[in-house]
Amino acid sequence: MKALVLSGIGWEHVAVQEMPVPRPNEDQLLARVDAAGVCASLLKIIAQGPHHTYFNGWDPAQYPVTLGDEGAVTLVEVGRNLRGRYRVGQRFAIQPAVEHPPIQHRERYRNGGEGMDKTAVGYTLGGNLAEYILIQEEVLAGDSLVPLADEGVPYFAASMAEPISCVVSSQERHVHIRQETLQSPRRADLGLLPGGVSVIVGAGAMGKIHAELALRYRPAHLVVTDLSPARLAWVKANLGPKAQGRGVQLHMAGPDQVETVIRTVSRGRGADDIILAVGVRGVQQNALGWLARGGVANLFGGLKKGEHLLELDALRVHYDDIKVVGSSGGVPRDIVTTLDLMAKGEIDPGRHVGFIGSLDQAPTALHYIEEMKTEGKTVLYPHARRTDLFSAEGWTREKEIRFLDEALA
Q1: Three-state DSSP class for residue 303
Q2: 328-374 pLDDT tens trace
Q3: Are 274 and 291 in contact (CB under 8 A)?
Q4: 202, 278 contact by CB (below 8 A)
Q5: CB 3.0-4.6 Å disulfide test: which of 8, 244, 355, 404 passes with 61?
Q6: Helix H segments across 49-154?
């Protein structure tokens, strides 16, 4: 089979290679990868190798790994001890952040994996950027194999459940303390503040998903800011009608206007919720000053080590009850929630697809992400014959079927 393999640190050690199809033991599953997403997190893996937290000393130069943390799969072989629980033909999405210590190959980790409580698919567990994926004991023990309740979910949509679930998880980290009256008990509400002012900083691939999912909380105002007028135009064109239908006033703002817009729509209070979907220290630092009393800032975009320290105004925390939250990935329940949101039309995964192609294009797709040449998610079909990356605005199940009819012929 073909697979995207990392065999060291740096781009020179990333390539699509031919390798044997893995064989499952009695406690493992083998699945066909129907579609796989290309995630920006792969750039960190390539740059850090054994120094990455999830690798914990595992050296890909000695033990190469198959990359890919986003995927939709169908079972093709079930280990003997699992035949009462799983069957050939079942379809799943996989939560790659596996909440379970390593079971296989503990000797490859630093200190034999001592102290590890998490492993990850597409890191040291087999990844989705391959024609087939070995679903190991860790994935099953961590309950990270999520069945598709609707067998008609398109392959691309199931593969996008993971990145979208990261946004679902992130937005639920927002906590607002509420009281009906000054004498009633306090309660903690999860999510963006209904009727409040929400701000999305950065309208890249994940920022756009944040913007669409923010609408389900029905803030009175949703402000989206980005350096790129084209990105803001996309948000206005694609999400404007939906925002209007939810009673949300949608505002586009460049970096020079965003503070004025926030001040105007909030009548000087500031933002109740800020989601920082960009990993730029100066931007994150500046945005903390936009918070209203009781506001929440979400550091969704990770900062580089060495550039990751922010100054926090302790007086504002003390007197204004501002909060700073963050998250990295999600849990299986977030994928279940995401699939349900897709079914209800709360999120259209097809509008967030940027490029489509075959597995051969994985390295090119990664370079596009690094060079910021894609505005949406890239989805690859591992079993398709060689197909150059092409723009896929408004990708749908019907378009996927037509593509695969030709690409698999």
Answers
A1: coil
A2: 788 999 999 999 999 999 999 999 999 999 999 999 999 999 998 88
A3: yes
A4: yes
A5: 8
A6: 137-141
Q: For residues 351 and 235, what is the distance between their CA atoms, to the nearest angstrom? A: 11
Start-to-end Cα distance in the chain: 18
**C-alpha distance from residue 353 to each of 190, 214, 233, 281 (Å):** 28, 19, 17, 27
> Per residue in 177-230, pLDDT tens?
998 888 999 999 999 999 999 999 999 999 999 999 999 999 999 999 999 999
Task: Name the amino acid, one letter, at 383.
Answer: H
3-state secondary structure of 384: coil
DSSP-derived secondary structure for 3-54: EEEE-SSSGGGEEEEE-PPP---TT-EEEEEEEEEE-THHHHHHHHGGGSTT
Torsion of CA 293, 232, 189, 337, to 10 degrees: -160
> What whole-number distance in Å separates Cα of residue 177 and Cα of residue 179?
7
Around 100, how many Cα atoms within 13 Å sit in the side-chain half-sphere?
20
**Widest CA span in the chain:** 69
**341 secondary structure, DSSP code:** H
Q: Are 206 and 182 in contact (CB under 8 A)?
A: no
Q: Which amino acid is at 130?
A: A
For residue 77, which amino acid is it?
E
DSSP string, 166-194: HHHHHHTT-EEEE-SSTTSPPEEEESS-T
- Return d(Cα 38, Cα 329) in angstroms, integer: 15
CA dist 248 and 222 (Å) reads 7
Neighbours of 149 (CB within 10 A): 11
The 10 Å Cβ neighbour count of residue 239 is 22
Domains contained in the chain, CATH given: 2-166+330-407 (3.90.180.10), 187-325 (3.40.50.720)
For residues 288 and 312, give the distance between their C-alpha atoms in angstroms, rounded to a whole number: 8
